[in-house]
Amino acid sequence: MASHTPVPDPTVATASQQLTVGFDLDMTLIDSRPGIKAAYQALSAETGTYVDADAAITRLGPPLEQEIRRWFPEERVAEVSDLYRELYPAHAITGTLAMPGAREAVAAVQRHGGRAIVVTAKYEPNAKLHLAHLDIGADAVIGSLWAEAKAEALRAHGASVYVGDHTGDVRGAQTADALSVAVATGPCGADELRAAGANVLLDDLTGFPAWLEGYVAERARRAAP
């Protein structure tokens, strides 16, 4: 599956502007489900409160606090979220895998002289641990941003493309006036991503380098005098 809409003029930078592509993390660049499941199981053991880890990993994308609220009273959400983040490195990093095509997608941006940044709702230090462990060489990592708030980092870094698996990622790209490239590898299906307004829809990141080749060529063509 690969569907495309025409590249909107506002997202096409001039030739003098460096290409910057943003990527989401969970279920876009990494399959963190095994690691996150283990982290929730550790949280349950530590707190004595049941958390359905199998259900939790079907809802990846939004901020951690949204999931914690399902299992803990509001007055404990901040405390338990901090505990989860403390437990995370010991339980979630080694069990997490790179998504198919993740390293190649990041490398494709850099091969075109661009910068590949990661903009994620995940706690930034833990996001950096994942990327280092999996040898995914992002040029910058910005954490604790979700949906429309991701536009803050995308704008600050001059990103013209944002790649993600969730409708929240589509909204983040739209808010930043960036091209939304959606991959159907997370909790949101292709139809849902398309309905949310994704400009480009790919099965997974293995199709991204070929798409980027065309995008860069079109960007250069539009910038030509």
TrEMBL record:
It holds the Pfam family HAD. InterPro entries: HAD-like_hydrolase_sf (IPR050155), HAD-like_sf (IPR036412), HAD_sf (IPR023214), PGP-like_dom2 (IPR023198). This is Haloacid dehalogenase-like hydrolase. It comes from Streptomyces chrestomyceticus.
